[in-house]
Amino acid sequence: MDANINTLKDLLKKESGKSVGQKNASFYNKEKSNFIKRLSEHPDDVVRLAVASDPSCPAKTILAPMLEVEENEDVIKAIVTNPNVPKSAIEKFATSSKAKIFDGDIETLSIIEKRLKS
Description:
The chain has helices spanning 8-17, 25-40, 45-53, 59-69, 73-81, 87-94, 106-117. The protein is mainly alpha-helical and 118 residues long. Helix 3 runs parallel beside helix 5.
């Protein structure tokens, strides 16, 4: 890794700098979204967990689709307890076979129940 990259923001700036053309707010928003999408598909569970736990992560475009394919229990828990995930995504997950991972997990079930009631 580059010695000048100490933060996620530094890495994003480096990745954005590789593109050519006019750089305006729309360009940077698109680059940011693409970058977050790549992180949400990262092979390392810890990276995906960080994405799933971030309340500022785009819920409809990143977290909801991520919930459909994620297999790691900690990452799934972070997604379903993220306050920005759409209720419809949680309802869909609750009817899937993967929902059984929370059987007996009273804390997580309580959080999900509160989300579904809101």
